[in-house]
């Protein structure tokens, strides 16, 4: 049982993050993140999902969609959240429980990124993450078969996260402590979560600066 509200900590980070607050080392990582996304866009099963996500972001952001620094800042907020949730979950999520990380924590990260993009407060972002977590799922059974479900998992996180964010904006509430809740995300997916090592003391340690493309 966790003693802190780590969901709100991540939500506050997403809510307060600006381009000026990003460490210089992260600017070297963001292009790698973008490059790593491109192959997923080109996969036939994922491209329609990406297209619908892009259209949704354009519609809710207005003014032709997000641009420049706003997009990179939201991207950083999402990836930092995704990386920290993944680290808190530990590899046992996949190795022991059989869940695929991109489709269990991806939508929480997207919900946080949308919140940053639209300048929401931390409470709304935490609620959006709570809504998003209710859509978490996806199994690694593809590892022992020739199934193609692995390829669609990363693509599903985008629209699920956007949907959760839009529902939160419309007044649908999610558990604001979804990560550390005794019946929440980490309880469900990880047999040995490491809350304090990865979700506490958010600054100045940025996990996103260690992201590498998976070749």
UniProtKB/TrEMBL annotation:
It holds the Pfam family MmgE_PrpD_N. GO terms for molecular function: lyase activity. Belongs to the PrpD family. SUPFAM superfamilies: 2-methylcitrate dehydratase PrpD (SSF103378). It comes from Colletotrichum lupini. It comes from the Eukaryota. The keyword Transmembrane helix applies. The chain crosses the membrane at residues 26-46. Keywords: Membrane, Transmembrane, Transmembrane helix. This is MmgE/PrpD N-terminal domain-containing protein. Residues 67-196 form the MmgE/PrpD N-terminal domain. The lineage of its organism: Eukaryota, Fungi, Dikarya, Ascomycota, Pezizomycotina. InterPro entries: MmgE/PrpD_sf (IPR036148), MmgE/PrpD_sf_1 (IPR042183), MmgE_PrpD (IPR005656), MmgE_PrpD_N (IPR045336).
């Amino acid at each position: 049982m966790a003693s802190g509200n780590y969901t709100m900590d991540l939500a506050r980070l997403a809510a307060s993050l600006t381009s000026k607050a990003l460490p210089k080392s992260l600017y070297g990582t963001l292009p790698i993140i973008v490059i790593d996304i491109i192959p997923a866009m080109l996969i036939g099963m994922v491209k329609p999902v990406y297209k619908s996500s892009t259209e949704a972001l354009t519609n809710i952001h207005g003014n032709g969609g997000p641009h420049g620094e706003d997009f990179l800042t939201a991207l950083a907020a999402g990836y930092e959240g995704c990386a920290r949730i993944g680290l808190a979950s530990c590899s046992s999520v996949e190795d022991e429980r059989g869940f695929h990380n991109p489709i269990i924590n991806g939508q929480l990260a997207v919900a946080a990124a949308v919140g940053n993009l639209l300048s929401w407060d931390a409470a709304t972002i935490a609620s959006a993450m709570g809504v998003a977590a209710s859509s978490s799922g996806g199994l690694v059974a593809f590892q022992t078969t020739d199934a193609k479900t692995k390829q669609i998992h990363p693509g599903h996180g985008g629209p699920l996260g956007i949907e959760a964010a839009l529902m939160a904006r419309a007044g649908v509430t999610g558990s604001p402590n979804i990560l550390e809740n005794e019946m929440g995300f980490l309880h469900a997916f990880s047999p040995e979560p490491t809350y304090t090592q990865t979700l506490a003391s958010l600054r100045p340690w940025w996990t996103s600066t260690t992201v590498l493309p998976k070749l």
